[in-house]
Amino acid sequence: xxxxxxxxxxxxxxxxxxxxxxxxxxxxxxxxxxxxxxxxxxxxxxxxxxxxxxxxxxxxxxxxxxxxxxxxxxxxxxxxxxxxxxxxxxxxxxxxxxxxxxxxxxxxxxxxxxxxxxxxxxxxxxxxxxxxxxxxxxxxxxxxxxxxxxxxxxxxxxxxxxxxxxxxxxxxxxxxxxxxxxxxxxxxxxxxxxxxxxxxxxxxxxxxxxxxxxxxxxxxxxxxxxxxxxxxxxxxxxxxxxxxxxxxxxxxxxxxxxxxxxxxxxxxxxxxxxxxxxxxxxxxxxxxxxxxxxxxxxxxxxxxxxxxxxxxxxxxxxxxxxxxxxxxxxxxxxxxxxxxxxxxxxxxxxxxxxxxxxxxxxxxxxxxxxxxxxxxxxxxxxxxxxxxxxxxxxxxxxxxxxxxxxxxxxxxxxxxxxxxxxxxxxxxxxxxxxxxxxxx
Length: 440
Ligand code: 5AD
Ligand code: SF4
What we know:
single chain; 22% strand; 34% helix; binds iron/sulfur cluster; 12 helices; binds 5'-deoxyadenosine; 6-stranded parallel β-sheet
């Protein structure tokens, strides 16, 4: 009988797709996915270390696993991902119930490490080997999935002053375009309609390897039959070039939404962060995208309370938010990460001041999110169905091409994953509607 693995994923989409790959890899060690920790023989935490909060969550999950492991002989605990990469030795020391610690470049080794652990041999493999052989394992996707993530690169060379990513994921490595295209074709064959291309900095795809450029990759993917929707994440505003901006106007399959993290609206803070663009550069790119593709949706990441941020710097961030009027945004209090430059910058912003800035920023964004959602009422929008709605089994849910989440009443005679929905109402975060009667 196959054994069962339960994977808990923390952090970003990179980790999500890595977890999906780990499931495929573990099939070779005779493991299938468990639906809960209770039925698992192996629990794997795929960890994140982007902010301090993530660290804390993982520590508490590890504490619970100590009890779980002592409940039955032979249960195994593995820890992978960014925190494992950063704190491997310390983790193994502080949590002796962990059998396997493996880093972001050691994913392909997982089946071997699990076999060793089954024979009571613990492992810790966290060397930055530059190994990308895990890319060969197709990420597990549930049957009937309409959307799938495709890794196009790993790592980051930017070393933004606050960011731990280059230290835990290593230098940028791009995946050969032939492999990416093969994966996209096989997803199309499985009935997937949307691919989300993943990388820490997708706009610099292929530069180091002399591969085709990112816009050239997009054009090739758009030629794969059966993929009506293409998205990508994450873009660095400095590296988003004219050619890619123009593609939003020319390429129907490229969804009219971009996640373009600005981080701050103050040039002084952007320079201290080492972002390589000014507020003006950023806003010009937003305008060019809007001109090329009217109705384009935007989302962003913000950091408040970066060392040295004054009230007036923060107000400039609010004013960028006002100017762009993002459809959605993620915002965070600066969290000093060990080993990054910003961790030793002077001018720490007191926690209360940073907290109050975060609340102001988030309440402004809430207004904009509501406004952008309300603007959809009365329109017909194409929705890619993800499955039944969590709040009402008679409804389906999915996303518009501009990435808004919709719950809707389907037309009973209709099938297929792309549906045209009349939007009737908008809430704080989602849209609601109904599918029109079949036309023609
Ligand atoms: N503190 C707070 N936020 C951070 N981010 C990255 N590093 C930090 C940090 N040290 C945020 C950035 C990034 C997002 C993924 O996480 O906004 O875009
Ligand atoms: Fe971190 Fe900057 Fe790289 Fe993004 S671009 S992963 S913020 S170093």
